[in-house]
C-alpha cells in the first residue's frame, strides 16, 4: 500500500521524509496554512530523496499558473482538490503530461461514482468540510466506500492518525493512504508520527 504525506513546507520536514521514505509527499499550492510557492517547493524538492515522488495539490488553479508551478517545482503528479471538471482535467493532462489524481470530498457514494467518470488516473477520497477543501483533519464515513463501486485505484484521506489507522486499514482496501494533520504536532510535521505511520502501513503490507 502506498503512502502519501501531505503539506510539507519546511526543510526539516523534508529531512524527516528522507528518513522514513513515504512513496509521495505533497506540496499544497492552494489557500492553506500549508501553502508553498513554486519556488519554495523547488528548493524543498531539491533536498528530497529522488525515491519520493512530488505531488502538487491545487484547488481550482488557473491552468496557466498550474502549468508554470508544475514546471518550476518539478512535480511528478498533479492532485486536483477543487471543483475541476472533465475539460479542465483533459487540458492539464495535455499541457503537463503528468499523472493526475482527482480528490473527492465524499458525502455520499454518488460523489465517488461521479468523480470516477472524470479523466483522472486515480482518486483521493477525502472528508467533506464546508470550511476548507482539504487538510482538515476530519474523518469521513468509511461506510460509504462499501456503497460505491470503485473501479479506479484510490487513496483514503481525511483525519487519519496513528491511533485510527490500524482499525481503518483493517476495514478498507485502498491503493494508498494520504495523511497531513495526523502527522503534525503544533502545526508542524512530527518526525515520530511520520515514522509511526510508515511502521503501521508496513505491518499491514506484511
Ligand atoms: O492540506 C491542506 O492544507 C489543503 C488545503 C486545501 C486543499 C487541500 C489540502 N490538502 C490536501 C491533502 O491531500 C490532505 O493530505 C488531505 O486533505 C488530508 O488531510 P488531513 O485530514 O489533514 O490528513
Automatic annotation (TrEMBL):
It comes from the Bacteria. It catalyses: N-(5-phospho-beta-D-ribosyl)anthranilate = 1-(2-carboxyphenylamino)-1-deoxy-D-ribulose 5-phosphate. Residues 4-199 form the N-(5'phosphoribosyl) anthranilate isomerase (PRAI) domain. Its EC number is 5.3.1.24. The gene is trpF. Keywords: Amino-acid biosynthesis, Aromatic amino acid biosynthesis, Isomerase, Tryptophan biosynthesis. Pathway: Amino-acid biosynthesis; L-tryptophan biosynthesis; L-tryptophan from chorismate: step 3/5. This is N-(5'-phosphoribosyl)anthranilate isomerase. It comes from Anaerostipes hominis. PANTHER family: N-(5'-PHOSPHORIBOSYL)ANTHRANILATE ISOMERASE. One of its GO terms (molecular function) is isomerase activity.
